[in-house]
Protein 1
Amino acid sequence: SLTKEARARLTAILEFADLGAGFRIAARDLEIRGAGNLLGAEQHGHLRAVGFETYCHLLEEAVRELRGEAAPAPPTSVELRLGLGLRLPERYIAEETLRLAVYRRIAGARTDEELASLKQEFTERFGAAPAQLDNLILHQRVRRRAEALGMTKVKRGQLAWELTFDPTHPAAHPAAMALLAAAPDAVLTPAGVLRLPLADRDPARAAAALAALLPAAQ
């Protein structure tokens, strides 16, 4: 027979059975367990072991499994070398736990809309955004696009971007061909690295131009 705690978690899963409900299920599950302070020393159980975003992801996987649905393919791990300064200055957010929370929330954003909403929130809470915050948001925009296109590495060279693709990813070959068509000066090397001339020598402007170009390959 199910324990009281198990029944409560199952009720939460059934109540929030729509796709994308992982966050709400996690929140209810944390209420059932007694999560304590998410950012302090009072974290408990699985949350403390794996972190909040990972915990939400694991719960969402459990929902799919219970519903008999196939799990989505895991995103490609992308190494980014964009040449951007990403460390938030202490003068912007003095408290370390708050800075870590900002890093984590940006890293968990999946869409441009989420990133724009986060920037607005942080600006209202902490003041005008420094360049490093804009860089973090831009960095995440490039990461999400690169993941979707099957890239494993995005490196900024002196004259060109070097985009490396995972040959086993279903989106990789179509993406490389689409980028070659969209950027006439692009070159695909024998090693499978796409060299894309920099649109600007300034790192932030160059990365923004790359982020704007990548959706054309989807």
Note: The chain has nine helices and five strands.
Protein 2
Amino acid sequence: VCLPSYSLAQGVEVFTNLGIYGGQINDIAIHPSNPDKMFAGSYLGDGLLKTTNGGSKWRAVETNGVEPGQDEFKNHTVYAIKMAPGNPDIIWVAHKVWGEKSTDGGQTWTHIKNKTMQRNCQNCG
């Protein structure tokens, strides 16, 4: 997986292979007032990735037991990531057939599953 990092000193974007587990990146959400904080959604692999240092290091995000014994991001495709315009600590993440919501910047997650989302969440953005 290659994700961007931005070097202010050089003023250019640099894409670096980070060696993290996953395929293509489907969506990136950047915190509106702190561009060092970003989320990236991948095709399978780790599913949802997060950086707090402008992309120098990325880590897999876990749902911390939304469903007992499962991590809802790992090995699932993340199609869309959206931050609430007035409160970027509220984050929605869409998988193929369900979603997750965080109200604390991605520390904890609430599982969202309904009949509409079960059909297809590929265009939920």
Note: The CA atoms of residues 41 and 48 lie 5 Å apart.
Protein 3
Amino acid sequence: MAYPPPPPRPRRPIGVAILAILIILAGVILILLSLLAVLAGLLVMAATGSALILILAGVAF
């Protein structure tokens, strides 16, 4: 006896897939921006002298 075909699954609307892709892209962009901020901070520390930055960080926190 043959099995009946499975019922059709409801498809997700295309907007859900687009929204998921946009959220993933936003996360990747935020990660890249944070890496750029870290690199910029390292460049500032190298340019101005890390002792001054460490003293300012100690006063601020």
Note: The radius of gyration is 25 Å.
Protein 4
Amino acid sequence: METAKLSQPSDRLSGVRSRRAGPVYLSFLLDPQTPALISTQHSHEVMDIFADQITAMPAMAAGILGLFNRRGHIFWIVDLAQMLGLAPLPLELDTYSVIVLRVPVQPSERVATTLLQSDYVLMGFAVHHMRGSVRLSQTLLQPSPEQFSSTLAPCVAGLVLHQEELCLVLDAEAIAQACISGSSDLGN
């Protein structure tokens, strides 16, 4: 009887990883027609939130849904599609699919805003539908064309053809920066 060569689980996993090289991205729909990806590098968590758990704030831009408290962290929930100049999420939703990003904050921004007293900020971005995660090679990323709107263009890292769909690859830091600095009108 021949003995099969036994390998360690770590050896088997490294073989799988090498076949699937590249960073992991969250896959979602910004609106019913716009597939998008965002790197998991800054993702903190993905969750569904009941609408009544979001506290609306008066006199805020239309793209800001409100504040949310999760495990002692209070952060904004923003309609990502509306912030990027696309159609807003329907108002009658009972539940929002939210990507929570943990993004580093520059020291100058911490001084300018009393709310930012740490090295990072949590921000929630409501999207039309979460699809899961994908691993993509950086070589598949194509530069973004110049025809995007001035609101959308700074937040797009590029485009990628994935499963016969052209997906926007969004830049998490640029999106958070637009919110923090107020450079985005958040749909107004």
Note: Strands lie at 24-31, 34-39, 43-50, 64-70, 73-79, 95-104, 120-127, 129-135, 156-162, 165-170.
